[in-house]
Amino acid sequence: MAVFDRTSLNDGVRPREVFAWAMYDFANSGYTTVVLTAVFNAYFVGAVAGGASWATFAWTAALAVSSLLVVLSAPAIGAWADAHTAKRRLLAMATVGCVVFTAALSWAGPGDVALAVIAIIVSNYFYSVAEGLVAAFLPELARPAALGKVSGWGWSFGYFGGMLTLGLSLVVVMAAQAKGQRASEFVPLTMWITAIVYALACLPTFLFLRERGRAPALPSPAGGPSQATVVPAMAGGQAAPVGTFARLARTWRESARFADFRRMLVCGGLYQAGISVVIALAAVYAEQAMGFTQLQTMMLVFLVNIASAAGAFGFGYAQDWLGHRRALAVTLVGWIVMVAIAALGTSVGAFWVAACIAGLCMGSSQSCGRAIVAAMAPADRLAEFFGLWTLAVRIAAIVGPLTYGAVTWITAGNHRLAIGTTALFFVAALAVLRGVDIVRGIRAAQPQPAGLSPPAP
Prior knowledge:
mainly alpha; Growth Hormone, Chain: A; 18 helices; about 75% helix
């Protein structure tokens, strides 16, 4: 608790609230670690789909469908959450959905492709929606100068949750393999472990985290004083907030004011496409290209989580010192180096080195992106802007893994070429980042006095 020092927090925010917020990262990290990265993805390809030539593409297609659903709904969900000050309520609903359908994955055995696909689509959808909603609490908790640090606290703490869930799963896998059991006999238990840890670890979030958002008003078309669209007074004399989709349309119409934020969405979408490949296909690559056993793969992912925790925590402090853009650029260069080593290296040792670099970059780049969005989001539209960020991340989760899956399908299983193409996403993100002015983006997010024009892009 001592790490959450009050000088980094907004007035009225207690350290236990930051701990409760970070506990959600702790809780949901088991889902990405066990389901998407270390266990179920490889199990789906090798056991559920029987190692068919289309198995990797089917896995990436299921994730793409899930991400498409998020793309279509996340910004509207975020806008609705802002308008109704309902981030915590919607977060609870998304959490229940993810936990229930994660448990449902335990029923998917060899040949149960349809069941597995449906459960992964729905569980990943709810996970993604919840991720955007919980991130929107960050600017309410941290002072502007400490966004990187506090984001890093949460993200690094989250990796320990991933390690806890993966560690418990490792115990199950090692005991089962010692008895000669098949994957279909022990993987279902790891899904139950993931669901239970998620459900229990997120309880502090809903017990102690307060919602401080306020419903925004809609400016007049002429840019004059704020005028809210109202209906007859509700209980308590409060007016109903403006329509969700009207506010979303307003966000895009104000592209001149939020030009740097929109460039950041493009940048984030590009580098998250590369990260989504690592998250969704690391275990598949390790087993198909490097010949790892499932136990070796789980140990590899455990190491990646340790490196990710260190990267997120340490780089959170470095980000506030270096500046947001420079810090993100450093992590993108690291990703390019990692992909080069993974694609060109032929030894197991080289792949372990690449995995360590991936871990350091993963925690730092994702935490860095969340802090940048928090800095450039208007105070009364936090969930909406994080909904747009979630949209960009989910588009990336469609493009990245599908690109990898398509390359392996077209090249008859050339996983090295597939991972090599991932470097293009990070190179493109680095190029787009050059045009992002973080300070100007922060200035644009501040309330604009009547009669004054927003800063020019």
